[in-house]
Amino acid sequence: MIRLLKPFVISALLFSNQCVSSEVATQLGVEGHVKKTTSQYYVFSGNSNKLLTNTIAQNLSTSLGHSTATRFNDGEIRVKFDESIRKKDIIIVQSTCGTINGSVNDHIMELILMIKAAKRASAASITAIIPYFGYARQDRKTEGRVTISAADVAELIESAGPTRIITIDLHCGQIQGFFRNIPVDNLPVSSIFAPYVANLKLHNPVVVSPDAGGAERAYKFQEQLKKLNVEASYAMISKKRAGAGVIEHMSIIGDVNGRDAIIIDDMCDTGGTLVKASELLKEKGAQKVYVCFTHPVFSNNALQTIANPVFERVITTDTIPLRGKVPDNLVIISVAPFLANVIERVQQGASVSSLLNGG
């Protein structure tokens, strides 16, 4: 049975998407004085991950705004807000991932059209929360005559006119810079994983980065564990690729012998590379191997792949809805309470950085 932390409430699926405004107190310190105002915001969901958005709304003690995104017979998308949003602060939650409801491209187009519709309906502000940002792995030119698709998609979304973008664990942090004229909050979720891992009472833990590009993410996770009084060493897997998704050679930099290893990564696609990395860790003497990654992309037979007994436990989040039967070793930690907290802070004009730093 799948382990689920901060569980999805099944009754959320029964919500009728009624529109309810939320009033939040905004406290602004001016020369030592506190000024209280109220701001109304509505939360809307695209079709990619309605369950996550419902859970966010529950954590905000509200329900979803009523909107519809339908398709014509030829596949064209039609978006409509079903009540007035004039002069309201609008929050649109949409992971740009592939699901049973549509492709990555469908959900990108849906998001763009929702933003445009909100602008034409005279929304006061539009915050686009993109828990998983599709095309993020195409963040640079690796050969001639190819697109930098992450930049192109960012340009498309920004041109629609959102006020702010909030996303989680971008594959490459520099993607923030692909949005030129609006603020982008790229939220790491190491603070979500760390308490769970700390409670596992691991033996001589070592945090493992699966490649050089993930070193900063692993270091931050190591710091989060230290705040919870868990001392962990660091190791990195060096990989030589023969092509996209094909690993020619792997080696480990650092000592994992006799230790419990935690691989920390931003996403899992097919799961094959994680299996090879975990087998290598075991060969080098690691006792148990745990894996934490933010985005469960899970292409092809990934769910069957991660059922491999080489993993003691696989820990992920709900930024992308799961498809198919999930293995017993999979744990899901919901990002909904975290995102609800971020939404409240943004609406109040409070610091998001202090939340990420444990403030």
Structure characterization notes:
The protein folds into 2 domains: 200 residues, Rossmann fold (3-Layer(aba) Sandwich); 144 residues, Rossmann fold, CATH 3.40.50.2020. The strands form 3 sheets. An 8-stranded mixed sheet has the order 1-16-15-14-13-10-11-12, with helices on both faces. It has a 6-stranded mixed sheet with strand order 2-3-6-7-8-9, with helices on both faces. A two-stranded antiparallel ribbon has the order 4-5. The two termini are 35 Å apart. It is built from 9 helices and 16 strands. With 359 residues, the protein is an alpha/beta fold. About 9% of the residues have low confidence.
Features:
Rossmann fold; alpha/beta; 16 strands; 29% strand; six-stranded mixed β-sheet; globular; 26% helix; eight-stranded mixed β-sheet; 359 residues; 9 helices
Give the distance, in angstroms, between the N- and C-terminal Cα atoms.
35 Å
Q: Helix and strand succession?
A: EEEHEEEHEHEEHEHEEEHEHEEHH
Low-confidence stretches: 6-38
What radius of gyration results from the CA coordinates? 21 Å
Number of strands: 16
Strand adjacency order, main sheet: 1-16-15-14-13-10-11-12
Structural class: alpha/beta
Assigned CATH architecture of the largest domain = 3-Layer(aba) Sandwich
Multimerization status: single chain
Tally of separate domains:
2
CATH fold group of the largest domain: Rossmann fold
Q: In what range is the share of β-strand residues?
A: 25-35%
The helicity comes to 25-40%
Round the mean pLDDT to the nearest integer and report it.
87
Biggest beta-sheet profile = 8 strands, mixed
Taken from the alpha-carbon principal axes, the silhouette is: globular
Number of helices: 9
Name the CATH class of the largest domain. Alpha Beta
